[in-house]
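Subgroup meeting minutes
Present: P.N., E.W., G.H.
Scribe: E.W.

1. P.N. recapped why we're keeping a running log of single-chain structure predictions: easier to compare across weeks, and new members can see raw inputs and outputs side by side.
2. G.H. added today's entry (281 aa).
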Amino acid sequence: MTVAIVGIGLIGGSLAIDLRKRGFASQIIGVDVNIQHQNIAKLCGLVDKTDSLENAVDKSDLIVLSTPVDANCLMLPGILDRINGTSKVVTDMGSTKGSIARISEHHPNRGRFVALHPMAGTEFSGPLAAIAKLFDYKPAIICDPELSDKDALELVERMLGTLNMRKVYMKSEDHDVHVAYVSHISHITSFSLALSVLEKEQEEENILTLAGGGFESTVRLAKSNADTWAPIFLENSASILEVMETYINKMNLFKKKIEERDSEGLKALMEEANKIRKILH
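Output recorded in log:
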């Protein structure tokens, strides 16, 4: 099995490590517009070689798109055109699915595409951030599986089995709403808190020296790559704006209870929030 990985960063690089180590891929071809990423990926042994997108598609059985979501959307139609009449399979690793679903929906080769979102990652980016076992026991969302050819779906499912991922199936539009609530708002919150603290730090130099574990865990996601996350926020804007409105309403509830010095009201809000324990053990 020859696998082309387009975008050799955290996700693509980590994928390459495990697909090779666990015997899924006999050869991995890397594609990246960043020359430095290409060189690092080759020096670190993440890929066997790097090549142009066109050559990599022609030489590979499976093409994995792991670039920012807007770039995935731009590339997919041309790749589907290029693999016409072959048994090649294309999948993507993007964390929004609405746009790529709309772009590919009416393509004559739509069946060769499997829309995928592995719910795994760290706050770091680039090929040097790639790690083994990143995907183990994490959920992998396969969207609109009924639109993919049976053999294409089976190949991607076999890849997910190799990665020890838990397969979940849903519609693209449902996926984007859910990830807005459980992933995208977390990043926006973290970026916002980081900006607030950095603004305050200009006035009081010691504020960051007091930061403890709670602050560090909350603001960790603010280290995430802007090139990755800006397209996500724009691609999933409708769902994200909806969850932001809900989040702001909850913040205002806390603000109101604090302004009113309503201890019982604050406790009630927090006890209601504590019910998240039933979901997150």
